[in-house]
Structures are given as structure tokens and as C-alpha cells.
Amino acid sequence: MRLFVALMLMLSLGGFMALLSQSKKEVAKTYPKTVMIIRHAEKPPDAEMSTHLSDQGHKRANALHQLFEKSKSRPEPFAKPDFLFAPKASKSSRRSTETLEPLGKLYGLPIAADFAKEDVEKLADSIFHEPKYAGKTVLIAWNHSFIPQLATALKAPSHPVNWKDDVFDRLWEINYGNGAKLQFHDHPQHLIEGDKAK
Q1: For each of the chain's 198 residues, which pLDDT tens digit applies?
Q2: Which has the closest alpha carbon to 183: 149, 160, 155?
Q3: Three-state DSSP class for residue 36
Q4: In Å, how far from its chain's centre is CA 106?
Q5: Edge-to-edge strands of the sheet including 34-39?
Q6: Which of 124, 136, 129 is nearest to 81 (CA)?
Q7: Dihedral of CA 67/42/110/133: which sign?
Q8: Do 139 and 83 form a contact (C-beta atoms < 8 A)?
Q9: What is the Cα–Cα distance from 103 to 94, expressed in whole angstroms?
Q10: Mind giving me the DSSP string for 104-125?
Q11: Nearest 5°: phi and psi at 80?
Q12: Which residues contact 148 (CB under 8 A, 6 or more apart)?
């Protein structure tokens, strides 16, 4: 009988600890200051079967730093990122990482590529629960097919439901306002010739 009571107490304690752990996880939720999402830069025609950027894509990747630098054409630049994210390289693409590499080298930032392109919920959960991202600016270069899902996971309000296959020159910005007042903006990049004005 004593053994049974002890066993029940242990099970109850285990359940309580699991509940406490879950509660702490929920309480620990934090928000970055801003998350910016871009698509990887231009790719070669599908017929080339390349996993890399096209020449045009390399031009965009090398110009990406201009988004964060004040100039005559950009009097109010975006905040410089504190963290960079790209999906894990796959057999079909490593273009997102290639898009961020020049920026990472320039700012001395590593590119976190821990999640597959489908794992948008896991990425959002990491950004919301790891204290190092709290109050920081995050830049994510991702596969366009999953960007709307990623924006939803990141709680972006009123964002487009798709990202067109031929669009490479946009930047989606989510401002958190300490988690109380979320704002979403869809910006043109204005980086290379051919980018849309609006």
C-alpha cells in the first residue's frame, strides 16, 4: 500500500512539474522589436536546375546592405538587423543563405539555418521564447512559398496570403511594440534596376 501511495505521489509530482514547465514556457514568451522577411534573391531559370542565385540574384544580395544605410534615396533606412535567419540548405536550394551571406560578412553576423523551410512554427517559437531575441531586430530570408505561413506564425496582422513566384523585391516588416500593438508593412526594396517603385 505504501508503495502504491508513493508511486501515485511521484506521478502527481511529475504531472505538476510538467504543468509548471509548460506554464513557465508560456510566461517566458517575449517579442523582438522588429522582424523583417524577404524572399531569397533571384534564381536562374528552372531549366538550369541550379541551387544557387542568378547573376541578378547576386546583385541583389550584394546590395542588401543599402536597406539599412541612410542615403539620398533612402533618408529613413530600416534598422540594422541583430540576427539573420535562413532555412536549412536543401538539395533544391541554398539561395536564402547566399542572399544573406554578403550582409552577414559586412556586419559580422552569423546566419542561423537550423530549421527546414516548412518549419515556420518552430522558427517563430524560437524567436518568441529565446530571451536573446527580445527587443532585437531580426531579418529572415526564406522560400516564398512559405513566407505567408511564416508571417502568420509570427503574428503579422493583415498580411498578403501569398507571395508571387516572380516577385523578389519586397520586404515584409512586422513591428511588435512590446507585443501590445502589432503592425505589418509591405515595402518595396528599391535595390537594383527593375525593382518596383511602390
Answers
A1: 554 444 444 444 444 344 334 433 444 478 999 999 999 999 999 767 789 999 999 999 999 999 999 999 999 999 999 999 999 988 778 999 999 999 999 999 999 999 999 999 999 999 999 999 999 999 999 999 999 999 999 999 999 999 999 999 999 999 998 656 899 999 999 999 999 999
A2: 155
A3: strand
A4: 19
A5: 111-112, 83-85, 137-142, 34-39, 170-175, 183-188
A6: 136
A7: positive
A8: yes
A9: 16
A10: HHHHT--EE--S-TT-HHHHHH
A11: -65, 135
A12: 159, 160, 161, 162, 163
Residue positions counted in the chain: 198
**Rounded distance, CA 40 to CA 156, Å?**
20
**CA 151 to CA 140: how far, in whole Å?**
11
First vs last Cα of the chain: how many Å apart? 75
Could you give the CA distance from residue 169 to residue 182 in angstroms, rounded to a whole number?
Answer: 23
Residue 36: all three cell numbers together: 523583417
> Phi and psi for 122 in degrees, rounded to 5?
-65, -40
Matching residue, cell 523551410: 117
Read off the pTM: 0.85
For 116, phi and psi rounded to 5 degrees? -70, 160
CB 137 within 8 A of CB 34: yes
- Please, what's the largest Cα pairwise distance for the chain? 81
